[in-house]
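Honest question from a wet-lab person: if I give you the sequences of every part of a complex, can you actually get the arrangement of the whole thing, not just the pieces? Trying it with mine:
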Amino acid sequence: MMKKAKKTSEAILKVEGKEVVLPVICGTEGEKAVDISTLRKSTGLITIDPGFANTANCCSQITYIDGEKGILRYRGIPITELAAKVSFVDVAYLLVHGTLPTESERIDFSNLLNYNSLLHEDMRHFFDHFPKGAHPMHILSTMVNAMAAFYPTVDVTTTARNIERSCARVISIVRTIAAFAYKKSIGEPIVYPRHDLSYCANFLNMMFDSPVKPYRISPEAVRLLNVLFIIHADHEQNCSTTAVRAIGSAQANLYSTIAAGVSALSGPLHGGANQAVIEQLRMIQADGDVAKFIRKAKDKNDPFRLMGFGHRVYKTYDPRAEIVRKECENYLAASGINDPLLDIAHRIEDIARQDSYFVDRGLYPNVDFYTGILYRAMGIPENMFTVMFALARLPGWVAHWREMIGDETKIVRPRQIYTGRTLSEVSAEVADFEPPALII
Ligand code: CMC
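Yes, you can. This is the full assembly:
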């Protein structure tokens, strides 16, 4: 069971003539929260916080973010260290199990990923029935949900070793599904996963190998993919992880729970932003007037937003964006790629960082601002960008699900303030209502 946050002090709330004392709890990095879980019982009042912007849904030991200082750590280890030194599979192990793996743990975990990398053959036929042009994220969420029908149920009652196997299965198979979906979309035969390849090399091979042109696995592409996957692997209570925790709290099957995460991630305000950034940069390139789009982003009467900018938690430069920007610039330079979209992205960033609208609101490039340009340079098709994010986020979702089921979690069920019609407002309508002679 998870270590609970300590009570460090008390808050006094005076409300409607009553005074209540509420505990203040403190996390290991000094983050404080007023525990309002007994507030309704003692006062009849609830709290309201749209988008849960000021609400912690749980205590968690997985990821620490300080959005004011631009700090991101998985299980206490800075993201920069992880991106520089370890593989994505090690990070997946770290997130799910709490520490970096020993040599034997790494072998055991890699074996589990390998033994569970094949997709059930009957599920392969599903790909034949999606319409041409279906977005791979929609295919992915459907396929992950369908896994619940093909693989044994995994929920809170499942034994520890089976949970471990199922977590490895979902991390490994989603990669296979993603590559199969891409191959189907371009009309090429699918390429099966191989036990002799590392996680990221395997994915690239399944994406790009072909019977007529064998794929030469580039060590630099494998390294880059490791870095990109590592920096996306978890981000505490983001929208998709919150969806995973919410669905999982109802004790739904692991696969249905992860499918909910994939669905949440597909939105352009979340993981879908990486594709939206490229589309927006291309639109700005076609127009040619960067300043016009900055003006539009600042105009309260214009719904236009700069995609890849801003973050709920970071009010300074997103540490992941810093890593991607450097990798992107280095990779394009080393590969001799001159992408005009990178120049436009630089210009937008330069303008925004001098403009009080962005500076005062703490709006900086987020992780999605430069990833699309890098994925494009690596040959990843645009409609696969968000799928790449989903593959990378799998260990995070799985880690949160495991943490949640091992804890005394209550079903996620917020309250609301009803603002609809009152009984007195509708009574005349009900009294005057003439039921139809024939009930259809
Ligand atoms: N362009 C222009 N103005 C913005 C932007 C933007 N991208 N983002 C926020 N603002 C403004 C917003 O209009 C508001 O201004 P005001 O205070 O005058 O009303 C202020 O900044 C605060 O914005 P918010 O919408 O209240 O902030 P939020 O925490 O609810 O939203 C966000 C966070 C990421 C949804 C938002 O910044 C956004 O829509 N960004 C563009 C989409 C994007 O890049 N999403 C990827 C996020 S990072 C990866 C991930 O989580 O998947």
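Two things worth pointing out. DSSP finds 19 helices and six strands in the chain. Residues 51, 238, 269-271, 273, 297, 305-312, 361, 363, 366-368 surround carboxymethyl coenzyme *A (CB under 6 Å).
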